[in-house]
Amino acid sequence: MTGTYLLTGSYSTAAEEGIKLWKFDGSTGSIDPLAATKGIERPSFLAVHPNGKNFIATSEVGDGELVSYKLDTGSSSISEINRQKSNGDHPAHVCIDETGKWAIAVNYSGGNVNLYPLHTDGSLGELADSVKHEGTGPNKERQDAAHPHSVFQLPGKPLFFVSDLGTDEIYTYELDDKKGKLNLKFVTEAHPGMGPRHLAFHPSENFVYSLGELNSTLAVYTLNAEGELDLTQTVSLLPESYKGENTSAEVCVSSDGRYLYASNRGHDSITAFTIQENGQLETIGFASSGGKGPRHFTVVPETPWMVAANEESDLLTILKISDKGLPCLQGEPVPTTAPVCVKVIAAEWK
Description:
0% of the residues lie in helices and 55% in strands. It has a single domain (2-348), classed as YVTN repeat-like/Quinoprotein amine dehydrogenase (Methylamine Dehydrogenase, Chain H), CATH 2.130.10.10. It is globular and about 50 Å long. It contains no helices and 28 strands. A hairpin with a 4-residue loop joins strand 17 and strand 18. By secondary structure, it is mainly beta. The N and C termini lie close together (7 Å). It comes from Planococcus salinus. This is Lactonase family protein. One of its GO terms (molecular function) is 6-phosphogluconolactonase activity.
C-alpha cells in the first residue's frame, strides 16, 4: 500500500470501534474507511511511529493506559501489541521521539510526565522515568493543580515541550537517550489564566506557537539554540464581536510555514492567520468547523486539505484551504463516534 492515510481517535467506549484507519484522496479531499478496532476505553490521542506502521493510543481514563498497535500492511487491519499503565490518571497526550526508541506521555489529572522505551517490535517497555509537576493557576475550576496537557518534540533535537494547563507554564525537557531520563532545562511562564494546551513549531524558522485553552489566545515565541522561549506577541483566537463561551483546542502550522490555524470549541471555528517574516501573526479570518466542538484537526501536508474532528457532533469534516489561506467546508461530513484526534500517515507499506 502506498498513499496517504488518516488515523482517528475518539471518546468512545471499549465496546465501540474507537480507533479507525481511513484512506485519504488528495485529489478530492474525500476519506473512506479501511479498518477499525475496539477494546480500548476513550482512545483520545494517537502518536504515529516514524516507520508509519506502529502507533500508540492513550486510554484517557482514571488510572489510564498507553496501548501500542501495528497497522497490518497486507490486510489494512489494526492489531494491538501490548499495554502499559500510564502511571497516573487521564493520559491526555503522547509523543514518539524521532528515533522511534522512546514514548513520552503526560497525565492530565496525574500531573506528571512519563518516559517509556519503545522496542523494535513496536511494544512499549516498562516506565523508565517520571517527572511530577506542582502548582496552580488563577482559574479555580480548571487550575486547581498541575495539568500537563501535551508533549511535543522540537524537530531535530532531543528537546520536548510540555504545556501545563494547570500551572500556566511550558516546561522544556531534554531527553538523555543513554540513561533514559528527562532533564528539565527551562520553565516558561505563560500569561496567568491562559491555560497552555498545545503548541506548534514553524517548519523552518525558530518560532513556536502556544495555544491557550482557557483564554482563547495564541502566544508567539522565538526559540534560541538552547531551547529557551521568548514571548513576542499574543493574539486572540476569537472575533471581537463574539461574547459566548469558548475553549480553544488545537494549533497547527502549514507545511510551507505560511499559515497557522487554531480551533475553537464554542465558537466552533477554525481561526486562520498569515505568518509574517518575523513569526508574528496577522488574522485572515474565521471558518466554520462544520460541527460542534472541534477538539482536533490536521492539515494534510503538501495539500490544500484540512480534516477536523468535531467531537460534540460526531463528525469528521473536510475543509479546503484557499490560495489566501482561509479554510472552507467541502463535501459531506463523515459520521464517526466522538472523534477527538486526527493523524496523518504518509505510508509506503511493503
